[in-house]
Amino acid sequence: MNLSEKIFKKQPNDNWLIDLDQYRIKEKIKDKWKGPDNFIKNCKGPWFSDDGEEGVLLHLFEYINDRHKFAVDIGAASGYGGSQVRHLVDKYNWGSTEIDGMLSFPKIHPRVKDEWVTPDNICSLLDKYKTPKEFDLLSLDIDSIDWYVLKKLLEGNFKPSVAIIEFNPMFEYNESYVRRYDLNLEENIIKDGTSRYGASAKAYELLMNKYNYTLIHIFPKGVNNLLFISNDFISPTMKINTIKDMHPTAYIEKHKIIGNRKSICDNDRCFADHPEFDNKKVKEVFIKKYFNNLPISEHSSWKEGKYPEINLEAVKEIFIDQKYFNEFTRKNIS
User: Fold this and answer.
1) CATH fold label, 20-252
2) Residues 235-252: pLDDT tens digits?
3) Three-class secondary structure of residue 256 per DSSP
């Protein structure tokens, strides 16, 4: 099955979504942003992402036709250091909507808009800056209520071709958890340096599957980003790793550990008394206090082969949603 030439610049083979980490930029990038002088010097690029993720994005857009010429960056920071979109926007001369509400950097890219993002205002902000409904790349990283912002964006009929989204890696591959959200509680929308943020990989996968996206890559330990692409770019013969293979072990980011201990102990004495605080205990406390568990849908479970007894109507809906439905499967399922 060949997909439309309008969708691809060139037709990929069935393995183009396998072993994507090999395309990451190997240059040590994070150190380039330490200190104001170093920061300003390195704003010229060409690489901006913290862990070379833009190399993988470049690989995808060697095949995917960037027909919209537009990117959206929610949590853009300065628009330089850590940006997932800057290299591609500059390389392909794209338009962009770049938003951040905590602008305190030695230099800020002129495209970055100073706006505080919430689920309630994300669609109006995108409209305010004339963001097209369909665009090429979404980057989402606000370390708080990201899942809710993404949900509202999708419900508002905004449709990126590719999305790179930060996730909370302290959950196992099959655990679907989302940070509780109450707009009346400021702590629910503030980045606080702990693991009480975002959502698990499975929670994002369930949400994105609903809007016809497939999880194609999870960056390795320490680079907690997910990559999704629209099902428009996927055929039944293309090989894609499972979420279990991509996220085999849950972990807590090293730079969150101290904040987690202090958050749970609530006083310096407790923190001092537990220098080797158990990360498993952190997770248990955080789930109880800060996270909602989302039920795993039958569709997701069926796709992982967990429930072979799933009803045929659900199977049929999956085939239709994923655009894998042909005459042969219709005759066997109906």
Assistant:
1) Rossmann fold (3.40.50)
2) 999 999 999 999 999 999
3) helix
